[in-house]
Design a protein that fits this description.
- The structure is a single chain.
- By secondary structure, the chain is α+β, with helices and mostly antiparallel strands.
- Helices cover 58% and strands 10% of the residues.
- The strands form three sheets. A four-stranded mixed sheet has the order 1-3-4-7. A three-stranded antiparallel sheet has the order 2-6-5, with no helix packed on it.
- The mean pLDDT is 89.
- Residues 166-279 form the Acyl-CoA dehydrogenase/oxidase C-terminal domain.
Amino acid sequence: MFDERWPEEAEELADALDGILVKYCSPAALRVMEADGSESTDRREDLDQALQKFGLGDLPAEPCLLTRAAVSLGARLAPVPFVSATPARVILDESDVANGVDRATIPSGLPRAVVASGGRVAIADVAGEIRRSASGERLVVIGDLTGQAVDADVDALRAWGFLLEAAQLVGAAKALLRYGVGYVSERHQFGVPVGSFQGVAHPLAETATALQAADLLTRHAAYLADCDGAVPLFAAAMAAAKARTASRFAAGTVHQALGGYGFTVEADCQLYSRRIRAWTAAMADPMPTLGVLARTLSDPATRDQVTDLWQFDRGFALPRWAMEAG
């Protein structure tokens, strides 16, 4: 059984990173950064400089550290291309290269993108239409890019993309759930908190369960990557699939719990839900990879190629809490 908690160094990193994000990515700051104008540009530059000074782009290529950072960035909705740029940095040792594998759009501001076509991997200059997503973020439509071929494993890029995008969605959805629970705990009707009604509490509890499953799958994939030195594609795809459905479920459930208030621009709820919708729409679809997993498992001749679906597939250490209790 793997230790379901993040390593201590990953949590220390998250605490330090959150100290920066709480200052530069408050809901008020995010609203400003969505708009056009000099103040928006200044806010983004301040955030970029703070994260550069922090060393976000120079973190060691350790899966638990990078994944935990993605969770924190998602929880604060930080408009930085960390999730997109990290796969190329880890696999290709290339900076400022967006992950365009199996994607139609990438964040603007990254001058190059890594793309794949027919098993070929190439790095190409980005030249495409810039538009705003539903979340207000600036994207580039990359279309069919051709560039300089590089020696890289396209599945390794896919795996890192799935893992980091899952982590980002888990962070955002958990933050949204906390916001929703806080609201229904404070809002009163008929002399009691709205959250005491079963029609409100039960869907939120189901959301928490779904998000916990996505969180554990994400941590499991990061744990395996730390053990083996490479992110397992199937584990990362399972995490991405669960994070995509669970985060969308969270967005819908919290909006229902807040009623019409959640749809107003004054509410922080829409900041999270719009980004969750946009991120899940832009991410690569994990279902083809899960289809390969299903076919591999259904064939007796190949099913032994799939490992680590269960905690007893290898000699995982006991959870840290179990060892400490003993």
